[in-house]
């Protein structure tokens, strides 16, 4: 684990964009393509807008393939759709071909949507072990990441897969890649900023293991690396500012 802590939100976003570009360029140089699983929410939207503007010419976007770490079970036209957010902030400005984008099919029932997405991922990796080049993650106030929420059955998964998760408090399904699949990635990057995330950051990084309460503790790279991109506010409850 590596902690990258910066003074401002702007600097955090710039440094993660640089990291994204570096990992992408390395993957494209090595094997001719770059696969990334995107995070949803408001924080990564700013990252995607930055990538689509200042980094538009620094990456060969024709060789980038986009997946989603999780998705809300809503139509792609719904304002809460992670796909719609990424389409607006990243895909459309860069004119990404639909053949490079792999959204979750939310037109079928949740269980089937999860199964189909798992199959889509396996087909992309041609039956070999699924290992994304990069998985982008956020962190919720309750220490969840992707759609790995406290006290949900998906936290017990041991094999890489995609699962449907029903959130009782929201009365909503989500589709998520599980912790083993995330942990298989070559690179994992958490984007977290703001004082409101400081307690969750402390729980996940420095507290004793308690997966049901702090699900993001499940993310442990298998032969890859995990890096945290934090601002000072989000890192303010940590006893160590770098690891």
Blueprint (SSEs and pairs):
Elements (H helix, E strand, L loop, with lengths): L1 E5 L2 H23 L2 E5 L3 H12 L10 E5 L1 E3 L9 H13 L15 H15 L9 E4 L24 E6 L4 E6 L1 H5 L3 E6 L5 H9 L18 E7 L12
Parallel strand pairs: 1-9, 2-3, 2-5, 5-8, 8-9
Antiparallel strand pairs: 4-7, 6-7
Helix pairs in contact: 1-2, 2-3
Q: Output the structural class.
A: alpha/beta
User: Could you say how many structural domains there are in total?
Assistant: 1
Rg, Å, rounded: 17 Å
Count of beta strands: 9
Low-confidence stretches: none
Number of helical runs?
A: 6
How much helicity do the residues have? Answer: 25-40%
Largest sheet: 6 strands, parallel
- Report, as a whole number of angstroms, the end-to-end distance: 7 Å
CATH third-level topology = Rossmann fold
Structure in words:
- By secondary structure, the protein is α/β, with parallel strands linked by helices.
- Helix content is 32%, strand content 19%.
- The chain has a single domain, classed as 3-Layer(aba) Sandwich (Rossmann fold).
- The chain is built from six helices and nine strands; from the N terminus they run βαβαββααβββαβαβ.
- The strands form two sheets. The chain has a six-stranded parallel beta sheet with strand order 1-9-8-5-2-3, covered by helices on one side.
- The radius of gyration is 17 Å and the shape is globular.
- The mean pLDDT is 96.
């Amino acid at each position: 684990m590596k902690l990258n802590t910066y003074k401002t939100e702007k600097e955090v976003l710039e440094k993660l964009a640089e990291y994204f570009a570096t990992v992408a360029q390395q993957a494209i140089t090595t094997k001719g393509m770059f696969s990334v699983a995107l995070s949803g929410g408001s924080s990564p939207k700013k990252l995607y807008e930055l990538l689509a503007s200042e980094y538009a010419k620094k990456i060969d976007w024709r060789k980038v393939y986009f997946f989603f770490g999780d998705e809300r079970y809503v139509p792609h036209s719904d304002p809460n759709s992670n796909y719609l957010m990424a389409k607006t902030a990243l895909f459309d400005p860069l004119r990404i071909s639909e053949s490079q984008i792999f959204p979750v099919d939310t037109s079928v029932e949740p269980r089937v949507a999860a199964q189909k997405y798992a199959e889509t991922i396996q087909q992309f990796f041609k039956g070999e072990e699924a290992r994304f080049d990069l998985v982008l993650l956020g962190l919720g106030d309750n220490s969840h990441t992707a759609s790995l929420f406290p006290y949900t059955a998906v936290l017990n998964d041991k094999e890489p897969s995609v699962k449907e998760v029903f959130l009782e408090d929201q009365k909503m399904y989500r589709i998520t890649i599980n912790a083993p699949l995330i942990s298989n990635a070559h690179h994992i990057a958490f984007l977290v900023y703001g004082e409101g995330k400081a307690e969750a950051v402390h729980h996940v990084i420095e507290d004793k293991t308690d997966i049901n309460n702090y699900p993001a503790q499940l993310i442990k790279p298998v032969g890859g690396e995990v890096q945290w991109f934090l601002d000072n506010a989000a890192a303010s409850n940590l006893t160590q500012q770098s690891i």
